[in-house]
Amino acid sequence: MRVLVIGLGSIGRRHLSNVRHLMPDVQITVWRHTPTPGANDVGGGDRTVYTLEDALSPRPDIAIVASPSRFHVATATALANAGIHMLVEKPLSDSLIGTDRLIDECTRQGVVLMVGYHLRFSPSLACVHGAISDGAIGRLIGLRAEVGQYLPDWRPGSDYRQGVSARRDLGGGVVLELSHELDYVRWLGGEIQFVSAATGNLGGLDIDVEDSAEIVLGFADGAIGSVHLDMVQRSPTRTCKVIGTDGTLEWDGIRGHTRLFSAADDAWTDLYGPSDVGVDEMYVKELAQFIRCVVDGEAVPVDGAEGRRIVELALAVKQSADAGQTIQVGGEYSQ
Prior knowledge:
- The chain is 30% helix and 26% strand.
- By secondary structure, it is α/β, with parallel strands linked by helices.
- It folds into two domains: 2-111, NAD(P)-binding Rossmann-like Domain (Rossmann fold, 3-Layer(aba) Sandwich); 122-276 and 310-328, Dihydrodipicolinate Reductase, domain 2, CATH 3.30.360.
- The chain has a nine-stranded mixed beta sheet with strand order 14-13-12-11-7-10-9-8-15. Strands 3-2-1-4-5-6 form a six-stranded parallel beta sheet, sandwiched between helices.
């Protein structure tokens, strides 16, 4: 098998390492868009290229798109035209422009398009999803999610101000960078019909994007949720509480811990963990699932349409914050 990895930032290197771990003997090509100092270091790959033509010759079997989100759709559409299955890092894009064409081309070519939301592969979060599906808390009433970590601590040893997360021109900002939360609350609670949000650049980080967001969500079944996102708090946190008519679920994503309060038992029960399952393991599971989707035809956890929906939701959040209004998801807003 031949594998193409596009982009060699921190996430590209993580994916490349995982490809080598799962498939030690595959040929890995790294496509970097511009030569940079140290470009001969391909991070475990076999060769480095700088053009689409060279990236496609010889033709790869699968590709991992790990470049900044602003460039995802153009790159992925070129891969789809060539019939190459792909795992595209989240978010699918920073706008909706070209996403429908990409999805249509993947369908026409029979190409697997999977969007990389690795929290779908967290065992403790999957436990929350399973408990909701099994009716452990009855009918869902409310949901509250929070994630936060100080941006300069994300990638020690690099200038955070030059990274994708901090730059508007590369599709950064907390809403898109931490769209994992938008994906998983939709996975847990179902379709989202409206959002009302406030965002701000509050942390004095010398960046040109929002570093904090507070979002209210209206789910299709009537439940109400909230999501807090930030890149400023010094103590990392990732939590979710799901409230139902018959109980409550609490998830601690840092500790890998899920617990259930049952109204019938009037008691808390540990459902999973605490566990030391780390982020690397989730990414390995994600990659393994992508390969099974390609080789065995298994269902894609987050396909192109799902990835597009999260972009649509993120843009609605941004529009709501800019306009100071509640926004219907799926309505007309800036592309």
